[in-house]
Amino acid sequence: MEIKLFQLDKELKTFLTTFIVVLTIGVSIGLVYLKYTTKMTPKGTVERYNGSNDNEFDIAESYPKPISEMLTTTHSHVIIFAIIFVAIGFIFNFNSIINGFWKQFLIIEPLISTIITFSSIWGIRYIHKSFVYITIISAVLMYVSYYIMSLISFYELVFKKNGKE
Q1: What is the Cα–Cα distance from 93 to 163, expressed in whole angstroms?
Q2: Among residues 9, 49, 61, 103, which is most buried (max CB within 10 A)?
Q3: Is residue 31 part of a domain?
Q4: Residue 149's CB: how many other CB atoms inside 10 A?
């Protein structure tokens, strides 16, 4: 028998639903922080890592990130993102709505985008500011994949009953 989310017992469905809600709140707070620190613009993102001295007194509003902070940011984010995407990917794997190529894509894509996103941040800091576009594209793919997996899993756990909507 193939296990599907809607077929799980009520207690497990409640646990997984609660986990998805809490995890999504945490991921969303991370996006709010990103908005606060980068204004979610290419310029703001470049300034976050390269620093800024765009005012008339040549006093930087933000300073270039030192290698120690780059290492700490990359280390902690890659590890925690891997855990987040393994957890949501594992749950999503048992959905009955999306299968085949798209299921596999959504499960694997955020893991790949995690590496691309944080590698490109190093590119912004140490190679050229145009790496910001790779950062933005990979981060958007990563977060869109997360929210699709979360919403589909949540929908199936809460609303789908006995194989019917």
Answers
A1: 16
A2: 49
A3: yes
A4: 24
Q: How far apart are the first and last CA of the chain?
A: 21
Segment 66-79 shows an average pLDDT of: 97
CA distance 139 to 79: 16
Question: How open is the CA angle 21-27-6, to the nearest 5 degrees?
Answer: 35
Q: Which two tokens stand for residue 11?
A: 């207690």
* 2 inside domain: no
- The reply to whether the predicted model has a pTM over 0.90 is yes
- Position 59 pLDDT exceeds 70: no
> And the tokens for 53?
């001295």
Domain assignment of residue 38, yes or no: yes
- Of the candidates 32, 36, 65, 31, which has an alpha carbon nearest to the alpha carbon of residue 50? 65
Range of the domain at 34: 7-158
String of DSSP letters for 1-52: ----GGGS-HHHHHHHHHHHHHHHHHHHHHHHHHHHHHTTSHHHHHHHHH-B
Give the model's pLDDT for residue 57. 61
